[in-house]
Amino acid sequence: MSSPGPAVAGAHAPQVRPGRLDPDFLSAVDTRLAPADQRLASRYPGDPGTRQPVHTVYVPADQASAATARAWGDEALELLDAAAPDPPSAAAATGLGDALDTEVYHRVRAKLAAQPVEDLRIDFEDGYGSRPDAEEDAAAVTAAADLSRLLHAEDGPSFAGIRVKSLEPTTRRRGLRTMDLLLDALLEAGPLPDGFLVTLPKVTSVDQVLVMAEVCERLEQAHGLDPGRLRFEIQIETPQAILGPDGSATVAAMVHAAGARCAGLHYGTYDYSAACGIAAPYQSSEHPVADHAKAVMQVAAAGTGVRLSDGSTNVLPTGSPQQVREALRLHARLVRRALERGYYQGWDMHPGHLVTRYLATYAFYRQGLAVAGTRLHNYVSRTAGGVLDEPATAQALASFLTRGVHCGALDPAEVAAASGVDRAALDALARRQALPASPPPTQPRERP
To answer: What pTM does this model have?
Structure first.
């Protein structure tokens, strides 16, 4: 007996019966789930697709000035010349191997010359310490002038702000006064610069986040700023910020308590490790307690639009040539490890860290360009390529390429050549939106 031949489209089409679920019932389902749909959309709007800095540089308030970013860049270039004067020596010193090629090396040199610091925080907390009130008052006014100049400088950071003292009882009034005075002085000089952020350290409760949100609201009203204009980052440096006494993930409640005011969650390597009882020689951003905390942070922030930042290393590229090479290799490995785990930002504590921050970051994106571009091209063109990607993965591929463009590791033209997707379509895919129907105008390149 012969087997039946292949079905012919349109021939012998099956007869479809009416469904058992009537329209009135389906409308009732829509009505019942509408509040949940609205909560999901408001609480989890997704990543905005805007630029996220690859790092944050913290400088104590008594050491910061309008020249800080340029000075860090110059010192980083000096270290690069001394420890890794060419691509082969840089690949060997950092341990990045073949991923660090000539293109990566020269792009990093150009980056250190054009915009060495992407995000800078003038620190009034641990790096600054406790000072007489009059001294910190004056430092707050000086920091306002420095921030204004930094954010308007051609080679200055795209983001900058302050880290205030925590809202714990002994420091809360001092921290809020510094924020108040600085904002007042900053706005006297002109409109609030784009990219201004405040970092709130050592957060231990949702109540502290709610108070910080209220402080921002009151300052906006006092200065006539648009609602929501002031935003802050929550620094995760205490176990209480990860796990509450009832077993709940406190950081998730913090994110939603702050709403749109929460710009990011920053992991504090050493405070958190010490609070968990880790001995000093073993405190690291790759310790299991750090990985646990950062995994909880990652799940809490997923889909909310809140950005994540890894912590720092306190091992500085100073001392003998061997000590410098060991510090460079360690930092490059930590940066690469964080990138592979979805942490696209971290802290840098020394000008020498800029060298490995950019070398590791640029190598990460350039090494992944060909594969990500091909997979995205195959997804958009519905071409079989050995990997069956779904919309969520296509979004991740587009986000990877977009981040590479934002930081200067990749150019829009080479991304378009690798993926067959122009900039507007790439941005739409990164936001998981419908692709543009027609070619859009050329987008200007981001500041490097």
So the answer is: 0.91
